[in-house]
Amino acid sequence: MNKVKQKKLEKSGWTIGSAKDFLGLSDEESAYIELKIKLSTNLRKLRTEHNITQVELAKILKSSQSRVAKIETGDPSVSLDLIIRSLLALGTSKKEIARAISS
């Protein structure tokens, strides 16, 4: 955030912090959420690079387009297992998944 904007907000009584602080997440919970977001973002990037629509990916996964949309946005109802299976369905290697996690 812009430092000037942050100072203005703080002077107006706003508290600046992270989502972890706001939600009271543990380090483990925060790391898990970050992991899901990285993998979900990577899935969307790969899907678009392969010129595959959400509907087409849903057919590959035997799921629905709305579920694919939830996977790509890191919806809390989506399991890490489903995200990884989706990446593997697009031909992502274990090394590429590890690279996405570590970036």
Level-2 CATH architecture = Orthogonal Bundle
Number of strands: 0
Biggest sheet: strands, sense, closure? none
- CATH fold description: 434 Repressor (Amino-terminal Domain)
Q: What count of domains describes the coordinates?
A: 1
Question: Compute the gyration radius: what is it?
Answer: 17 Å
How would you characterize this protein structure?
This protein is mainly alpha-helical. The longest helix is centred in the middle third of the chain and has 23 residues, at 27-49. The two termini are 22 Å apart. The chain contains seven helices and no strands. Helix content is 71%, strand content 0%. The chain has one domain: lambda repressor-like DNA-binding domains (434 Repressor (Amino-terminal Domain), Orthogonal Bundle). It has helices at 3-11, 19-23, 27-49, 54-61, 65-73, 80-89, 94-102. The radius of gyration is 17 Å and the shape is elongated.
Any key phrases for this structure?
103 residues; mainly alpha; 434 Repressor (Amino-terminal Domain); 7 helices; 71% helix; 0% strand; elongated
